Amino acid sequence: DTGVSQNPRHKITKRGQNVTFRCDPISEHNRLYWYRQTLGQGPEFLTYFQNEAQLEKSRLLSDRFSAERPKGSFSTLEIQRTEQGDSAMYLCASSLYSGQIQYFGPGTRLTVT
Amino acid sequence: DQQVKQNSPSLSVQEGRISILNCDYTNSMFDYFLWYKKYPAEGPTFLISISSIKDKNEDGRFTVFLNKSAKHLSLHIVPSQPGDSAVYFCAASAIQGAQKLVFGQGTRLTINP
Q1: How far apart (Å, rounded) are the C-alpha atoms in residues B54 and B99?
Q2: What is the mean pLDDT of residues A22-46?
């Protein structure tokens, strides 16, 4: 059973550019989460999908951020017009509907120059 | 508003001794608690969890204790091994709704030979 995978692992972009990250959850996990972690802090919740439905979004998720999970499988997180403050590790996690343990991917480290 | 706090940024323990990591929470709606271990450039790895209906859960060298009246939990690792050196995050969730995780800031554990 493969774990959660994320691509790319690292992304360096210039301020103002758009970036997109992908997350492939553990197969048959119908819940998918996105978190963001900055240096010295714990991960912070961004958004949550149950199957293909995006059911909750954090106030941290400005309108420059959009996430999708078409067909309830993989998910993408897009950041438009990146700012230096977007530099962080973006983590994806998945879980079963009935389970409370979330399994995390390796993350995508974004650096905005 | 930091709902989950880990007040010790770092902890140094001799190999073979007991490591005790602490975590406090403020939100009474939390009813499930997890500990994750994180190595640099990797995503958090699930270690052990506990439901609010229990006060102790044990898995090999790892034991988590929950004191609901004090809103406090701790992770005991015994005996500590060099491979345990990592950052440990405490997380909490509520069984209702998205079950999103709220993390503490982390404690860096160093095991000295």
Answers
A1: 19
A2: 94
For residue A59, how many C-alpha atoms fall within 13 Å in the half-sphere facing its CB? 0
Do the Cβ atoms of A43 and B101 come within 8 Å? yes
Residue A99 confidence (pLDDT) above 80: no
Among residues B32, B34, B31, the alpha carbon closest in space to that of B21 is found at: B34
Inform me whether the C-beta atom of residue A39 falls under 8 Å from chain B C-beta atoms. Answer: no
Overall size of chain B counted in residues: 113
User: What pLDDT, in 10s, does the model give residues B41-71?
Assistant: 889 999 999 999 999 999 999 999 999 999 9
Mean pLDDT score, B103-113: 97
pLDDT band at A1 (very low <50, low <70, confident <90, very high): low
- Kindly tell me the burial class for residue B59, based on how many C-beta atoms sit within 10 Å of its own C-beta (0-12, 13-18, 19 or more): exposed
Contacts of A45 in chain B (CB under 8 A): 98, 100-102
For chain B, the distance separating the N- and C-terminal CA atoms, rounded to the nearest angstrom, is 38
- Determine the Cα–Cα distance for residues B92 and B98; give it in Å rounded to an integer: 12
Nearest to A100 among B32, B44, B106 (CB): B32
Closest by CA position to B4, among listed B108, B97, B105, B107: B105
pLDDT in tens, B92-102: 999 877 789 99
C-beta atoms of A103 and B105 within 8 A:
no
- Put simply, the answer to whether A100 touches B93 (Cβ < 8 Å) is yes
* Interface contact B105-A42, CB threshold 8 A: yes
